[in-house]
Amino acid sequence: TSYLASGDQLGVTKFFPQTFGTTADGSAPAFCTGCDFLKWGAWGTRVNFGSSNSPQYTDNIHTGWWVAGDVVSNSDLPTDGTATYSGHAIGNVANSLNGQGTITYVATGDMNMSWTFNTRSGQFDITHFDTSVTPSGLSFGGALRAPGVSNGNAFTGVLSGGLPNDPGSLSGGVAGSFARSPGQISGAVPSGVIGNWNIGNSRYNATGIFAGSH
Known about the structure:
Structural class: mainly beta
Number of helices: 2
Radius of gyration: 18 Å
Strand order of the largest sheet: 5-6-7-8-9-10-11-12
Helix content: under 10%
Shape: globular
Strand content: over 45%
Number of strands: 12
């Protein structure tokens, strides 16, 4: 048993004005500016598992995050030049920093990415994430590269960051792809980027999605 809900249905961005801003009519702001060609939202599922010799268990998973777009093939990517992308990130947090057990919640932040097409490398950063931990939020990032896979349109990287008064304590990863808007021609700089990320340590963990536009 599963569900899939769009970000427009959820309206979750209006609960994070520090990240997404506000709208005059009180509707939910866009996940990122100029990202109408991308879709995002949440999913959930109920799974039953167990062996034939043991009791069956049921687990409910709620508010997983998804993001989708028209992924650009390797042959349609530029072979030269650079691009920068900006947007946002959303994720689920498991936080035990207060020493009184683990609390879980949703947090958001800003995303920025730069890319050099001829070297197939770049930089990825999430900033101002989870202002409940510190007023300015957490920051983490790292270098990107495009692995030598058949489709060529997949970048990955190792992320690092820190908690307040504990720099360098967080580590994780990011994986994503370039996406195009309708009618975008081959060889043009892709209109957007999408993907997933994670960061954490023994006391703080977060994982989610990102989307950005050029």
